[in-house]
Amino acid sequence: MLRKFCQSILLLLSSVYLLTVIISFGGFFSLELDLLSHFRMHYFVGGLVLLLLSCLLFHAKSLGMNLLGSILNLSMMALAIIPVQHNRETPMAQHQIYSANVLFGNENHALLEPLKQAPYDHILLLETGKKWQKEAQILKEDYPYVIEQPRNHGGGLLFFSKHKFKQEKQVFKSQKTPVELPYIWAEFDDYIFIGLHAITPLSQFASARNEQMDMLATRINAHPNHKFIVMGDFNDTLWSFSFQRFLKKAGLTPTGTGLLPTWPASFLPAGIQIDHALVKGFNHTYFKIGSENGSDHLPIMLSVQ
What we know:
This protein is an alpha+beta fold. It has 8 helices and 12 strands.
């Protein structure tokens, strides 16, 4: 009797699991359904647990459903990971970049001090207001070339570089919603760096986020002979239809596998990677996720050669 009850519960859970995995492929049809694609690593772990329980309870129907769900989920993960550049760290790196969503209300300004003598060529700070702008002035001695676009909300950006570049202050203005967000467009001698904090894809802002990414892809394609590095908080994962669409349209390649979370830093076992480093024209890259710094995001670092 107990065994049959457990099998019934297992069948219910297996049905929910398979249905969720199938619906998570619906990003092509709906921006809301695309949100389900962000949790493929969680589906992977859940699928393994359900497969184990199916074997222990000798329940063939549940086993088949969980096996099908796991294969579908893993196939999408594999298709997203295969193109990723994940080379080993090399001491010959030509450019090193640090990017961190510091969190608008974060008071841990001490995280700036170690960056002063760090070997980075560029530093990108996201969610920065006037206070962060003031505290970050200590970086200017070592990083004299600067773009400052602070905001009294989560959309501010600060960019510091050791190298001279063609400076442009850029602002994305949505045609569909009352959204205006700055982004960094810095043209160096041998590549263009883009730093951004993408719009959160919720409710009416979901279409604006895709509009923002389409705008960037169009700008990137207008410079076919340039190399690109694009970094920041994309509020999107490697697995989503919208992110894959952007990568394909812009011709960019991710450098992180999407398997290690960057948000929320307070509970990473339930986290997802929404901070990314993308490249175009670089053959050797090394992507790394940093340690907790008081923000709800972990910082990311990229080395390219």
